[in-house]
């Protein structure tokens, strides 16, 4: 009799502990999810802002766990938080493409990781997608020579931008269409990044498409103010451009939609992979990292073009996936 009463008396304590555990996990997930609304250069928050997809996964698991534990009243706050997160994540799984449209322009962007990317794999991807424009960041002279040997200068007749020895700052735009250089994008006081960000006009059958290569500095602990300034500079540049002409920004933004600065830079523009309904896109990190790829920091952003298809491909020798997008002119 006494043992039975003792066991019964233990149940409320365990049930309360279960409630507390569920609510603490919920609070942690909500705080991480809410970080996307905090515009800061504090590195821990900047990192937390990349964890949005994990919040959705965590809330799903928490909802299942609460149900298995029969903590029925906790299902309401957990379900509400999950619903709110799905409002943000849900649209990324819905495609807004025109697959039947004629492809006039295909853009590919690749961070070479200090020139280490496999040039043969990169050019294979270029040929597979019949790419018209290739934006390459972290290009060194040796990498440029390897790309030429792999057929880049045969496939692309035009190029703007220069490689840089022993640095991550070199950028080049290759193109099958004629290019007009607007700026080499090599003034750090303007670009707010040490990397070159050339701006060109791509003559696509008589239509001028304005394209800017992008390589914002990585938001490591001491560089987050410079990282944020680079995103602000891109947002300012985008706002200055005429809305009547097609516009493309392509490259390594070192940020994603969890960062307020990136959302400002992307305001009024469409992210190709997001518009393609690819959901949780992961372009980094792929090479030699202890964690699998989990965040999209490489983008093709556009305005004034019709998206036909988009995607990404892993290339050996670099921690960034190649991103590509095919467009039709309006």
Automatic annotation (TrEMBL):
Residue spans crossing the bilayer: 20-38, 50-68, 75-94
Record's keyword annotation contains Membrane: yes
Domain of life, per lineage: Bacteria
Domain Endonuclease/exonuclease/phosphatase positions: 111-320
Keywords: Endonuclease, Exonuclease, Hydrolase, Membrane, Nuclease, Transmembrane, Transmembrane helix
Any GO MF annotation of the entry: exonuclease activity
Keyword Hydrolase (UniProt): yes
The protein's name in its UniProt record: Endonuclease/exonuclease/phosphatase (EEP) superfamily protein YafD
Organism of origin: Terracoccus luteus
């Amino acid at each position: 009799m006494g043992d039975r009463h003792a066991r019964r008396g233990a149940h409320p304590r365990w049930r309360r502990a279960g409630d507390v555990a569920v609510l603490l996990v919920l609070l942690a997930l909500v705080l991480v999810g809410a970080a996307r609304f905090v515009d800061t250069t504090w590195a821990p928050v900047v990192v937390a802002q990349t964890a949005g997809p994990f919040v959705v996964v965590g809330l799903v698991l928490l909802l299942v766990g609460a149900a298995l534990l029969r903590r029925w009243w906790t299902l309401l706050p957990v379900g509400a938080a999950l619903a709110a997160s799905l409002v943000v994540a849900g649209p990324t799984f819905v495609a807004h493409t025109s697959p039947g449209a004629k492809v006039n322009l295909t853009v590919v962007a690749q961070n070479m990781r200090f020139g280490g990317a496999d040039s043969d794999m990169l050019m294979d991807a270029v040929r597979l997608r019949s790419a018209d424009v290739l934006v390459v960041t972290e290009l060194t002279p040796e990498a440029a020579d390897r790309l030429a040997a792999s057929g880049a200068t045969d496939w692309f007749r035009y190029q703007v931008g220069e490689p840089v020895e022993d640095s991550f700052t070199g950028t080049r735009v290759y193109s099958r269409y004629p290019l007009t250089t607007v700026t080499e994008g090599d003034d750090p006081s303007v670009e707010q990044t040490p990397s070159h960000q050339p701006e060109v006009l791509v003559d696509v059958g008589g239509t001028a498409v304005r394209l800017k290569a992008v390589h914002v500095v990585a938001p490591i602990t001491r560089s987050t103010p410079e990282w944020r300034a680079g995103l602000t500079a891109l947002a300012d540049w985008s706002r200055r451009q005429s809305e009547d002409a097609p516009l493309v920004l392509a490259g390594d933004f070192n940020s994603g939609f969890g960062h307020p600065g990136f959302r400002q830079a992307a305001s009024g523009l469409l992210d190709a992979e997001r518009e393609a309904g690819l959901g949780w896109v992961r372009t980094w990190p792929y090479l030699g990292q202890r964690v699998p790829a989990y965040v999209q920091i490489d983008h093709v952003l556009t305005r004034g073009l019709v998206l036909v298809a988009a995607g990404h491909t892993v290339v050996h020798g670099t921690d960034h996936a190649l991103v590509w997008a095919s467009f039709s002119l309006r």
